[in-house]
């Protein structure tokens, strides 16, 4: 609707704006250091995977009822395919679309606003297609869980050996040890066994620099050998 047409419209009562804030003191329950670093690593992995053509968001409110600002969730990371990355204060599904993928890395219960069941109920209402949950406090083998939307239901899938497909991206979720964090972290891989991880931009840059250094060292060794042969001939 053009501005000129809207200016001609009259309403039978005053407009009461509905606000959808980017912050909420009731949700500010703190965050432990490990949780923050695990979330940041996953965010960087997804950004490197998807590039600027898709949206990756970390810990921002997702509103899913245009009439009720209290109905919201705050995934640790979510993905919206086909929407270019941009800055935004909060996400409104009726304007911005429904995220296909949401990931939760759980903190101790006293740092969580919602229980896992409450989060899943909201993801079902939102229409999310895939939900991943990592609980670092659980025993190895039980830490990673996943849900898929099937025929309108959000149903938990079987996860074995803490590896499972990422249906949304056509990759694989794996838990693997991270040297910098000194603990297992949630990563994406191109293979089911997790031998070929998707690298963050910093990791890719470091790997490229290491490759260049190895090539330079190999060339230097070749030149030294050539010089030795020349000297022997003399």
Task: Give a short summary of the structure.
It is built from 5 helices and 12 strands. It has 234 residues and is α+β, with helices and mostly antiparallel strands.
- Overall shape: it is globular
Regions with little confidence, pLDDT below 50 for 5+ residues: none
Number of helices: 5
Strand content: 15-25%
Give the helix level as a range of percent.
25-40%
Question: In sequence order, what are the helices and strands, one letter per element?
Answer: HHEEEEEHEHEEEEEEH
Total E-strand runs: 12
Mean pLDDT: 89
Gyration radius from CA atoms, angstroms: 24 Å
Distance between the termini: 88 Å
Description:
By secondary structure, the protein is α+β, with helices and mostly antiparallel strands. The protein has helices at 3-7, 33-50, 93-96, 116-126, 201-233, and strands spanning 55-57, 62-63, 72-73, 77-80, 91-92, 101-105, 130-134, 144-150, 153-156, 163-166, 171-178, 183-189.
SSE order and pairing:
Layout: H1 3-7, H2 33-50, E1 55-57, E2 62-63, E3 72-73, E4 77-80, E5 91-92, H3 93-96, E6 101-105, H4 116-126, E7 130-134, E8 144-150, E9 153-156, E10 163-166, E11 171-178, E12 183-189, H5 201-233
Parallel strand pairs: 2-5, 6-7
Antiparallel strand pairs: 1-4, 2-3, 4-6, 7-8, 8-9, 10-11, 11-12
């Amino acid at each position: 609707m053009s501005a000129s047409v809207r200016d001609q419209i009259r309403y039978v009562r005053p407009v009461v704006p509905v606000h959808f804030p980017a912050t909420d003191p009731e949700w500010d329950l703190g965050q432990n250091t490990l949780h923050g670093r695990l979330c940041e690593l996953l965010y960087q992995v997804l950004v490197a995977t998807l590039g600027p053509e898709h949206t990756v968001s970390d810990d921002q409110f997702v509103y899913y009822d245009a009439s009720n600002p209290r109905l919201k969730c705050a995934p640790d990371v979510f993905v919206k395919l086909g929407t270019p990355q941009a800055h935004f204060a909060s996400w409104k599904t009726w304007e911005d679309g429904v995220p296909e993928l949401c990931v939760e890395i759980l903190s101790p219960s006293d740092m969580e606003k919602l229980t896992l069941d409450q989060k899943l109920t909201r993801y079902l209402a939102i229409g999310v297609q895939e939900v991943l949950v990592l609980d670092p406090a659980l025993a190895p083998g039980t830490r990673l869980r996943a849900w898929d939307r099937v025929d309108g239901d959000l149903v938990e899938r079987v996860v074995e050996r803490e590896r499972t497909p990422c249906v949304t991206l056509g990759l694989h979720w794996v838990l693997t040890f991270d040297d910098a964090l000194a603990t297992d972290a949630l990563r994406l891989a191109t293979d089911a066994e997790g031998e070929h991880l998707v690298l963050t931009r910093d990791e890719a840059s470091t790997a490229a620099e290491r490759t260049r250094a190895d090539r330079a060292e190999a060339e230097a060794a070749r030149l030294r050998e050539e010089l030795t042969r020349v000297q022997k001939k003399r």
